[in-house]
Amino acid sequence: MDCYYINLDTQTERRAKVEENFKRFIPADWRLHRFPALTGEASQSWKIRGGAAGCYRSHLELLRSNKNAEAPFLICEDDVLFGEASGRLLSHFVNKTGRDWDVLFPEIGIANPQIMIQLLLLRRQLMSDYKAQLIDLATYPFFSSTCYIVNNSKLSVFTDLVEASLGEAPYAMVLRKIIMARQVRAKFIFPFATPISEFALDSQIQQKDTQIADFVWNEFRKLMYIDRDMNSLNKHLTAIVDDVSDPETLHFSKILAVRLSTKFRSK
């Protein structure tokens, strides 16, 4: 499978990290290609500027340039990270007979606390047999454009939809709009097939005033990775909880911690 990663010419450290990580964990017959990220040039009518505009244009150009693709292909940004299970899971679901998806995500971002709890419990259930499944993404208010696989059979439809919304909003938000409207069929692998890179909080299009939110959401993404290492999760979360939480929410979180624990025994 052809795999494309978007990378600015100046981001040589990220380039080296992606290529080393890909070579280590992804099947040898998958081909990695670097796509030089486009600049943030934007029309006056666009609602996005700078890195967000460049990100959108880069994804769209990759879709356009693969219009004659004869097989599914992968698009990712240079803060992608693959792990031990990534190649196996991606290969399994891509090669599975009768693909019922147009876009496949190895992982997604979730901000809704109720859905976080649902996924936590589902992961626990699935991991009892160490298995993963595909979940319909249209019912999840997600965010992600870090990595996804496009089914070539619906590429023209997907590309037209992305092009029609050019400049309206950041690319990840347009993806969510298209998918939640069921204009394309999208699924995600769960538990997540890819972990989170050290560069995830250093995105060129994230706003500085949302760094705490980004940090917390990324910690959840790490927690939902199929081969997570609990010891590697960020210890700074405790300090953020102490700094941000109000007394009511902090107490409620402790109630949830007890109730959701695998050690809890109900009456």
Give the tags.
globular, 9 helices, 7-stranded mixed beta sheet, 267 residues, single chain, two-stranded antiparallel sheet, Spore Coat Polysaccharide Biosynthesis Protein SpsA, Chain A
How much of the sequence lies in strands comes to 5-15%
**Which descriptor suits the 3D outline?**
globular
* Rg over alpha carbons: 19 Å
Care to count the β-strands?
9
Fold-level CATH name: Spore Coat Polysaccharide Biosynthesis Protein SpsA, Chain A
Overview of this protein structure:
By secondary structure, the protein is α/β, with parallel strands linked by helices. It has a single domain (2-259), classed as Spore Coat Polysaccharide Biosynthesis Protein SpsA, Chain A, CATH 3.90.550. Helix content is 41%, strand content 14%. The protein contains nine helices and nine strands. The chain has helices at residues 12-25, 50-65, 86-95, 113-127, 155-164, 171-180, 211-223, 237-244, 247-259; strands spanning 2-7, 31-36, 73-77, 103-105, 109-110, 133-136, 142-143, 147-150, 186-190. The strands form two sheets. Strands 2-1-3-8-4-9-6 form a seven-stranded mixed beta sheet, with helices on both faces. Strands 5-7 form a two-stranded antiparallel ribbon. Strand 1 (2-7), helix 1 and strand 2 form a beta-alpha-beta unit. The longest helix has 16 residues, at 50-65. The model has no long low-confidence stretch (mean pLDDT 91).
What's this, in brief?
The protein is α/β, with parallel strands linked by helices. It has 9 helices and 9 strands.
